[in-house]
Amino acid sequence: MAEFLGINLFGLFGQLLVGLINGSFYALLALGLAIIFGLLKIINFSQGALYMLGAFAAWMALEYLQLNYWYALFLVPIVVGIFGILLERFLIRPIANEDHLYSLLLTFGIALILQGLFTDWYGSSGLPYAIPEELKGGTRLPFMYLPNYRAWIIVCSLAVCALTWFMIEKTKLGAYLRAGTENPQLMQAFGINVPLIVTLTYGFGVGLAGLAGVLAAPVYSVSPEMGSSILIVVFAIVVIGGMGSIGGAILTGLAMGIVEGLTKYFYPEASNTVIFLVMVLVLLTKPAGLFGKEA
Amino acid sequence: MNAIMKAQSTREKLRIADLHAFYGESHILHGIDLQICQGELVTLLGRNGSGRSTTLRAIMNMVGSRTGSVNINGHETIDMPSHQIAHLGLGYCPEERGIFSSLNVEENLLLPPSVRSDGMSVEEIYEMFPNLAERRKSQGTRLSGGEQQMLAMARILRTGANILLLDEITEGLAPVIVQKLAEVLTKLKERGLTILLVEQNFRFAAPIADRHYVMEHGHIAEEIHAHELKAKTELLNTYLGV
Fold this sequence. Notes:
The complex is a heterodimer of chains A (295) and B (242).
Chain A: E1 3-4, E2 7-8, H1 9-40, H2 47-65, H3 69-92, H4 100-122, E3 138-140, E4 145-147, H5 148-170, H6 172-182, H7 184-189, H8 194-216, H9 226-241, H10 246-266, H11 274-285
Antiparallel strand pairs in A: 1-2, 3-4
Helix pairs in contact in A: 1-5, 1-8, 1-9, 1-10, 2-3, 2-4, 2-8, 2-9, 3-8, 5-6, 9-10, 9-11
Chain B: H1 2-9, E1 12-23, E2 26-37, E3 41-46, H2 52-59, E4 65-72, E5 75-76, H3 82-86, E6 90-93, H4 105-110, H5 122-128, H6 130-134, H7 145-158, E7 163-167, H8 175-190, E8 194-198, H9 202-205, E9 211-216, E10 219-225, H10 233-240
Parallel strand pairs in B: 3-8, 3-9, 6-7, 7-8
Antiparallel strand pairs in B: 1-2, 1-4, 4-5, 9-10
């Protein structure tokens, strides 16, 4: 039962699950990046650091304020989002009309500063964060053992991604966002306060990174480097999906997690590079990305 | 009652004085003065590059910077951001029409927030532009040029805007659609809307407009009333280079 055509099903499903979990984080982070890029045309290099900030905020809430995981899950995205709003308002907006290279460098600098501060305060070895009581244990499925917390990550991030997609594609607020991506000046002439929408969008995109950080805290150790290592992969995913494509970012994030998981099973040596290989192939055949519109 | 109506009909909706507009280093408008009363349809004529579109954009504060005075409905707007100006009852229809490709026809139609309470209802809009009703679920930019122009007009009529700034709405359209647009503008004029129209197609504008401003090099060079048109045709032709 555990073997099929010489394939160890326990191993395969195990790696698929790991892939799906990584994919959930990729999707959340890529979604935030895609929203921010779509409306602000900013390549937000601090997304990884804000994900790390989310994980640390959850840890700090528990350590210093005795606020458990569930409070953190709700409060940390808001706190990180507000932090993002302040960044946008006071650092990014003043250079919004300059070359995009400046905002890229600025957000990269912010990421380095955050990472440096947390390394200085908490060291680089990583801090443990316990899985909440309610989600301890797991379920035995025919081919594998499914830890409850990992199932929760997948369910929660898929739900948030689906909700965000619905909000952007099907609601009036989403129509503002989509139209603002195309022609912000005309939107403003119609009487819509575009700078406010830009600020809130940045806050929301960054809040998604904070949420991903809280979800990640119990499975990965909370460390200052956790953001920089995932960010490069997430950028590759945004490029594969098509810069600024919301659905593309979500689907590509999940798909690349799974591709990575499968590669880990069949050819582990390539598992760290496979996403970049896909990126090269996509750029060669469809430069706008799988779901992107040709310019 | 009559006196009130008369006072309202001569009420000034838009008064521009010494308006200068800049894009970065380039100085595009060199002191525009014009005024439009309620219910008037006024055109801006002139050659390409004379500053007509920039005048509309400057009224909406969509230029790099501007100085002078733009008084809308009695409110000085020179220091107002663009999104507040719209709420004084302005509807702007840009030259490139500005239909959003990521929105379908109905989403495009419903996008601009209402700026006054008595805008046309969606039903009225669809009655005026039946093509839009048929294609309400189509992607905005899949419409024909004429339909896109109808949509761009319909969009600002729904908001209740009663001062319309229309930029080259007949450009590149078939004669039958131009005719339809002339009917629409006449209807809007009957409803008491105030319209400032940038137009290349003088034959479209002449029969429906009350006054014309002729622009040259970022100035108003001439003001011509509809009844003077015959006498000044030659002068106009020299300005327009036809």
